[in-house]
C-alpha cells in the first residue's frame, strides 16, 4: 500500500472555493455570449433584432444575406449587385410584406461603363412568402416574370427587358392592385420591338386599380385591360390613334395619361419620336365617351392642333386637364370645348406656342367663362408681349380662381391693376419675362417679329425644361444638393403672392403696384435693380410681409429703406454684392432698427467687409443669415470696429456666419454675441482654433455647428455649456482624439456629430458616462477607424448602447490595419480582440477541469510515484546544489524490530556497546525506545530521528522485512536522498535470508561498504565493528564504485518496488 504523507500532498481546494471558481468562469463565458447576442443582428444591414424593417440597400451585396427574423415585414435589398436569388433565400423572414429588389442589374445602356451583370431568380424564390404584398423588381434586366405569391398587391417591373407580359402558370397574382411595367422598351433600353401582352394576362385580376405602361414602344392601346382600373398611364409610347373602342370597358377610370405619344420635337431636350409625318395623335370624337368618372386627363406632348368638342362632352367630372407641349396656340384663342368642363379645377396650357412667332397679346376664348370651378391656370411659354384685361377678361371672371402663372412668355407690357378685382387669387406668377414696368405700348404688329422670334427660338433651345414624362429612375438615390443652413418661409403661408422674379425691373415706383395693395409676398429676385431704396418705393404695399430682393444690385444707403413696410417679417437681401464690392462706397444697415416687425433677414453672399454700419440694431429680429461675407476682415486682429456687430440684436435666436473665411472667432467678438442666441452656425470656414470658454456667456445656446473647418483636437479642459445646450456638430474637421474632460460639464446634449474626421479609436475615457447616458444620436461615420484590440471597449459600447448611431452598417469602416481596410467596423468580432483573455480563460477552465478530475484518480493510484519522479527531476534541475540540513544530533539512527527479543538484545548488548562505549570513536546513537520524545506521533518521531542523524542503520532479518515501521523509515531515508542528495542508508544483515535480493545486489554494486553482514565466526566480529565504525565516519558517496555517476540516480526510484519483492 502506498504511503500517504500530509507533508507532501498537493493542496486540495475546498468544495465551496472550487464551486465559486467554476461559477466565475461560467459568468465570463456567458457574458461574452451575451455581448455577441446584443450586437447588431443583421450585418451588414441596418435593423435591430425586433425591427420590422431591415435595410440592406446600397451594400454592394452579391447574394442575399442570411437573415432570420419573425418580426421583419420589410426587407430592402435595392441598389446592390445581386446575381442570384435562390428558392430558400428568404426562408428566414417568413412574415415579409414588402420586398425591394430593385436596381441590382440595370439593362444594357443604363449600366455603368464596363459593368456586366445578370440576376437569376429561381422558380420558388417568392412562393413561400405567404404574406408578401409589395415586391419591387425594377432595374434588374429580367426577361420573364418570376412566379409570384397570390397575396401580392403591388408589383414593379419597370426597367427590365420584358417584351412579352405574361405571368407564370405556377402562380398568378390575382390580387394585384398596382402594376408597373414601364421602361421595358425605349430608346435608353432598346428592344427593337414593342411590349406585347399575352392573351389572358389580366384575366381574373379584378382588383387591379393602377396600371403603368409608359416607355414601351406600344403602337396601340392594349386590349383586355381589367375594368377595375382607375388609373392608366400609357405615356411615352408610339400610339398614334385612340379609337372609340380602346377605353370602352374602362368605365371606372379616373386618371388617364396619354402624354408624349406623338411628340412635339422643336424644343425637345432628349431624343424625340414624332408620329409619321409629324402628325398629331388621332383622337376619335368618342374616344372618352365612356369615361364618365374621369378626373385627370393628360394629353401633353401629342402635337395636337385641334380638339373636337365631343371629346369632352362626357367628361363632366374632369378636374385636371393637361394640354401642354402641343400646337394649340391658335386653337386656344377660339376654343369652344371648355364649355363642357364645369368641374375643371386645374388647366395646364404650357408651351403651346406657335413656332417662330410671338403674339402681340394673350387672347383667351369666351368659353373660359364656363370653367367656374377652375382654381389653377398655367400658360407658360405661349409667347406674347402684352397681358391686358381685354385679352383675359373671361379668366378674370372665374369665381374660384386662386393661381395663375404666365411664366416665360416674353411679356413686356402689363397693367398690374387687371388683377385688382380678383379677390380669390393667392398666386400671380409673372417670372422669367421682360417686364420693366414701362407703360409704353409696342408698335410692332401682330405678326412676324424677327428679333423676338430669333431670340425666342434660341432661348427655347436652352431654357425649356425637359418633358416630365421622360425616363426618371425614382429608385436611384437622388443627388443631394448642399443643404442650405437657413431657408425663408415658403410664400404659401401667406394670403397672396406676386412673383416678378427674373424680369428686367430696374427701378420701382409706388404706382407700379397699384391694385396690388393686398399682397403679402412679393418676389423680385433676379432682376437688374440698382436702385437706392429710400422708403417710398413700396408705399402701396402696407400689408407686405415677405419681400425677396435677392440677386439684384440694391444700394443700402438710406436709413429709411423699407420703413414704408410696417408689417414686413421676412426680408431677403442675399446676393446683392455688386455695390459692396465697389471700393470706397459706404453702406448703412440702420434701416433694420426701424423695421419693428422684421423677424427674418438674409444678408448672405454679399461680400460685406468694410464701410458699413459698425453695429446692427433690432429688437424684433429672430433669424439672421450672414453667410458668405467677409467677417475675417471685419474681425481682423487689431481692429475693434465690428466686434459689437451682432450685440444689439436683442431677440436674435438664429445666426449663420458660415462661409466667412474665418480662421477663428475672436474671443472679444464671441462674448458680444446676443445672449438670446439659440442656434449658431459657424460651418464652412477655416477655423483651426475655437474659444470654447467664451461660450459660457451664451446661456440660451442650444445648437452649435462647427462643421467643415480645420479643428484638429478638442480641449482637455471642461467646456461649460449651459443646461439648454443639446446639439454639437463637428463633422468634416480633422479631429483625431477626444477627451472626456471636454464633455464632462455638458448636461443635456442629445446630438453629437463627429463624422468625417480623423478619429481612429474611441476609448472608454473619450466620453463621460453622463454624456452617453443623455445622448440620443452619435454620428461617427466616415472616420478612419482602427479595427484593432484598442477598439474593444467601443465595440462593446456599440453592442450595449441605446444611442442611435447613423450609418453604422454602411459608413463606419476600418482604415487600419491594412488587412482590415474597407471592412465595416461592426463586422469585427467583439471577441476577436480578447484572444489573450479568451485563450487564457479556455486554458484555465480546461486545466481546472482536467486537474480536478485527474488528480484524485492519479493520487489514488500513483501518488507516490509522481511525487518521487517530481523530486528526482527537481534534483536534476538543481544540479549539485544541496539543501543545508538542520544541526545533526545523532551519528546514527538504529532501525530494528523492537518486538523481536533476539534482535533487541543484539542491538542493546552488542551494537550500542561497541559504538557508544568502545573503539577510537564514540558515536551517539538514536534508539526508538530510548530517545524518542513521548507525546509526539510515531511518524513525527521517525521523521526527526532520520533527518537529525548522519546515518540510518537498518537491522534486517527475514522476520522484520514486512514491518511497517521499517518500510516508513526506508521511505524517509530515500526522501532525504532526494532532498539533500545525502545517501544515509546502512544495511546490517543478521542472517542470510536476503542474500538473493536484487536490491541488495544492486546496492553492493554501487556502494559495497553500505551493506554489512553479521559474521558467523566470532573471531570476525572485531573486523565487523571496525568496518561499521569506518562507514559511520565517512559519507556513502565517497565509497561508491568509481564507475558510478549521478546519471544512475534514477535507478533509486525503483527502491520501493524492489524492496517489496521477496527474493
From TrEMBL:
GO term, biological process aspect, one = positive regulation of interleukin-6 production
User: Which of UniProt's keywords are assigned here?
Assistant: Endosome, Glycoprotein, Immunity, Inflammatory response, Innate immunity, Leucine-rich repeat, Membrane, Receptor, Repeat, Signal, Transmembrane, Transmembrane helix
Predominant location: membrane
Domain TIR, which positions?
888-1032
What subcellular compartments does it reside in?
Endomembrane system; Endosome
**Gene Ontology molecular function:** pattern recognition receptor activity
The record's section on Pfam families has: LRR_8 (PF13855), TIR (PF01582)
Report the family membership.
Belongs to the Toll-like receptor family.
Name assigned to this protein: TIR domain-containing protein
Q: Which organism is it from?
A: Scyliorhinus torazame
The major lineage groups are: Eukaryota, Metazoa, Chordata, Craniata, Vertebrata
Amino acid at each position: 500500500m502506498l504511503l500517504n504523507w500530509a507533508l507532501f500532498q498537493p493542496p486540495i481546494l475546498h468544495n465551496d472555493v472550487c464551486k465559486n471558481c467554476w461559477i466565475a468562469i461560467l459568468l465570463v463565458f456567458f457574458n461574452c455570449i451575451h455581448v455577441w447576442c446584443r450586437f447588431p443582428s443583421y450585418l451588414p444591414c441596418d435593423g435591430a433584432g425586433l425591427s420590422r424593417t431591415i435595410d440592406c440597400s446600397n451594400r454592394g451585396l452579391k447574394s442575399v444575406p442570411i437573415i432570420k427574423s419573425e418580426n421583419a415585414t420589410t426587407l430592402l435589398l435595392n441598389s446592390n449587385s445581386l446575381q442570384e436569388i435562390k428558392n430558400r433565400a428568404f426562408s428566414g423572414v417568413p412574415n415579409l410584406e414588402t420586398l425591394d429588389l430593385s436596381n441590382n442589374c440595370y439593362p444594357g445602356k443604363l449600366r455603368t461603363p464596363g459593368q456586366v451583370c445578370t440576376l437569376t431568380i429561381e422558380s420558388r424564390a417568392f412562393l413561400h412568402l405567404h404574406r408578401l404584398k409589395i415586391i419591387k423588381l425594377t432595374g434588374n434586366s429580367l426577361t420573364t416574370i418570376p412566379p409570384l405569391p397570390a397575396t401580392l398587391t403591388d408589383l414593379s417591373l419597370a426597367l427590365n427587358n420584358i417584351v412579352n407580359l405574361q405571368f407564370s402558370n405556377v402562380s398568378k397574382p390575382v390580387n394585384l392592385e398596382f402594376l408597373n411595367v414601364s421602361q421595358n422598351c425605349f430608346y435608353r433600353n432598346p428592344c427593337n420591338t414593342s411590349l406585347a401582352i399575352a392573351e389572358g394576362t389580366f384575366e381574373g385580376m379584378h382588383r387591379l386599380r393602377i396600371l403603368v405602361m409608359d416607355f414601351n414602344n406600344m403602337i396601340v392601346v392594349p386590349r383586355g385591360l381589367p375594368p377595375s382600373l382607375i388609373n392608366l398611364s400609357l405615356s411615352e409610347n408610339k400610339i398614334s390613334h385612340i379609337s372609340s373602342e380602346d377605353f370602352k370597358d374602362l368605365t371606372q377610370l379616373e386618371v388617364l395619361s396619354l402624354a408624349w405619344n406623338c411628340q412635339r420635337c422643336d424644343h425637345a431636350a432628349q431624343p424625340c419620336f414624332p408620329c409619321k409625318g409629324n402628325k398629331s395623335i388621332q383622337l376619335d370624337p368618342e374616344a372618352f365617351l365612356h369615361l364618365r368618372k374621369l378626373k385627370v386627363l393628360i394629353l401633353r406632348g401629342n402635337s395636337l392642333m385641334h380638339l373636337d368638342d365631343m371629346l369632352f362632352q362626357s367628361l363632366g367630372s374632369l378636374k385636371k386637364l393637361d394640354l401642354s407641349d402641343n400646337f394649340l396656340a391658335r386653337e386656344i384663342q377660339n376654343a369652344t370645348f371648355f364649355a363642357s368642363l364645369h368641374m375643371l379645377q386645374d388647366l395646364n396650357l404650357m408651351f403651346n406656342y406657335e413656332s417662330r412667332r410671338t403674339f402681340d397679346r394673350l387672347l383667351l376664348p369666351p368659353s373660359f367663362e364656363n370653367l367656374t370651378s377652375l382654381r389653377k391656370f398655367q400658360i407658360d411659354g405661349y409667347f406674347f408681349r402684352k397681358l391686358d384685361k381685354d385679352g383675359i377678361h373671361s379668366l378674370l371672371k372665374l369665381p374660384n380662381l386662386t393661381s395663375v402663372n404666365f411664366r416665360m412668355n416674353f411679356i413686356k407690357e402689363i397693367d398690374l391693376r387687371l388683377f385688382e378685382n380678383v379677390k380669390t387669387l393667392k398666386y400671380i406668377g409673372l417670372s422669367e419675362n421682360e417686364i420693366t414696368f414701362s407703360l409704353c405700348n409696342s408698335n410692332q404688329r401682330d405678326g412676324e417679329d424677327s428679333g423676338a422670334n430669333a431670340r425666342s427660338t434660341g432661348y427655347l433651345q436652352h431654357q425649356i425644361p425637359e418633358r416630365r414624362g421622360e425616363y426618371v429612375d425614382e429608385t436611384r438615390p437622388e443627388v443631394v444638393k448642399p443643404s442650405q443652413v437657413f431657408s425663408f418661409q415658403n410664400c404659401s403661408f401667406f394670403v397672396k403672392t406676386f412673383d416678378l422674379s427674373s424680369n428686367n425691373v430696374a427701378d420701382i415706383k409706388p404706382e407700379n403696384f397699384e391694385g396690388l395693395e393686398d399682397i403679402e409676398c412679393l418676389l423680385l429676385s433676379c432682376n437688374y435693380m440698382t436702385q437706392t431704396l429710400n422708403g417710398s418705393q413700396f408705399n402701396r404695399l402696407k400689408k407686405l410681409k415677405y419681400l425677396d430682393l435677392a440677386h439684384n444690385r440694391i444700394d443700402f444707403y438710406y436709413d429709411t429703406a423699407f420703413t414704408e413696410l410696417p408689417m414686413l417679417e421676412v426680408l431677403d437681401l442675399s446676393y446683392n454684392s455688386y455695390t459692396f464690392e465697389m471700393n470706397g462706397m459706404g453702406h448703412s444697415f440702420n434701416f433694420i432698427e426701424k423695421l419693428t416687425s422684421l423677424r427674418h433677414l438674409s444678408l448672405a453672399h454679399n461680400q460685406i467687409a468694410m464701410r458699413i454700419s459698425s453695429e446692427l440694431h433690432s429688437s424684433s429680429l429672430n433669424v439672421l443669415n450672414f453667410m458668405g461675407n467677409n467677417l475675417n476682415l471685419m474681425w481682423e486682429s487689431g481692429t475693434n470696429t465690428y466686434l459689437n456687430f451682432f450685440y444689439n440684436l436683442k431677440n436674435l435666436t438664429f445666426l449663420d456666419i458660415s462661409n466667412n473665411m474665418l480662421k477663428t472667432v475672436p474671443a472679444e467678438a464671441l462674448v458680444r454675441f446676443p445672449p438670446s442666441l439659440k442656434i449658431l452656425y459657424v460651418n464652412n470656414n477655416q477655423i483651426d482654433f475655437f474659444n470654447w470658454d467664451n461660450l459660457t456667456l451664451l446661456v440660451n445656446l442650444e445648437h452649435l455647428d462647427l462643421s467643415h473647418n480645420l479643428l484638429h483636437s478638442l480641449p482637455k479642459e471642461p467646456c461649460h455649456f449651459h443646461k439648454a445646450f443639446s446639439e454639437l456638430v463637428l463633422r468634416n474637421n480633422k479631429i483625431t482624439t477626444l477627451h472626456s474632460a471636454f464633455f464632462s460639464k455638458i448636461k443635456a446634449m442629445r446630438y453629437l456629430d463627429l463624422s468625417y474626421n480623423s478619429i481612429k479609436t474611441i476609448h472608454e475615457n473619450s466620453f463621460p458616462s453622463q454624456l452617453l447616458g443623455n445622448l440620443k444620436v452619435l454620428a461617427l461615420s466616415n472616420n478612419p477607424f482602427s479595427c484593432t484590440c484598442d477598439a474593444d471597449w467601443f465595440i462593446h459600447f456599440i453592442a450595449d448602447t441605446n444611442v442611435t448611431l447613423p450609418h453604422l452598417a454602411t459608413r463606419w469602416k476600418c482604415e487600419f490595419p491594412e488587412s482590415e481596410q474597407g471592412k465595416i467596423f461592426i463586422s469585427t468580432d467583439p471577441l476577436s480582440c480578447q484572444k489573450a483573455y479568451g485563450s487564457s480563460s479556455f486554458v484555465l477552465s480546461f486545466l481546472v477541469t482536467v486537474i480536478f478530475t485527474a488528480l484524485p484518480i492519479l493520487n489514488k493510484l500513483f501518488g507516490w510515484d509522481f511525487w518521487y519522479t517530481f523530486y528526482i527531476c527537481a534534483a536534476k534541475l538543481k544540479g549539485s546544489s544541496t539543501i543545508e540540513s538542520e544541526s545533526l544530533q545523532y551519528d546514527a539512527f538504529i532501525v530494528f524490530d523492537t518486538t523481536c527479543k533476539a534482535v533487541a538484545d543484539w542491538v542493546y548488548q552488542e551494537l550500542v556497546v561497541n559504538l557508544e562505549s568502545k573503539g577510537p570513536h564514540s558515536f551517539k546513537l538514536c534508539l526508538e525506545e530510548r530517545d524518542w520524545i513521548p507525546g509526539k506521533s510515531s511518524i513525527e518521531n521517525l521523521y526527526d530521528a532520520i533527518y537529525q542523524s548522519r546515518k540510518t542503520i537498518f537491522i534486517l532479518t527475514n522476520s522484520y522485512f514486512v514491518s511497517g515501521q521499517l518500510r516508513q523509515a526506508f521511505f524517509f531515508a530515500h526522501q532525504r536522498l532526494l532532498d539533500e542528495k545525502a545517501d544515509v542508508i546502512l544495511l546490517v544483515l543478521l542472517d542470510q535470508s536476503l542474500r538473493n535480493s536484487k536490491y541488495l545486489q544492486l546496492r553492493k554494486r554501487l556502494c559495497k561498504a553500505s551493506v554489512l553482514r553479521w559474521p558467523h565466526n566470532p573471531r570476525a566480529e572485531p573486523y565487523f565493528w571496525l568496518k561499521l565504525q569506518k562507514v559511520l565516519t565517512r559519507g556513502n558517496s565517497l565509497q561508491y564504485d568509481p564507475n558510478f555517476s549521478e546519471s544512475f540516480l534514477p535507478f533509486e526510484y525503483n527502491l520501493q518496488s524492489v524492496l517489496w519483492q521477496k527474493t
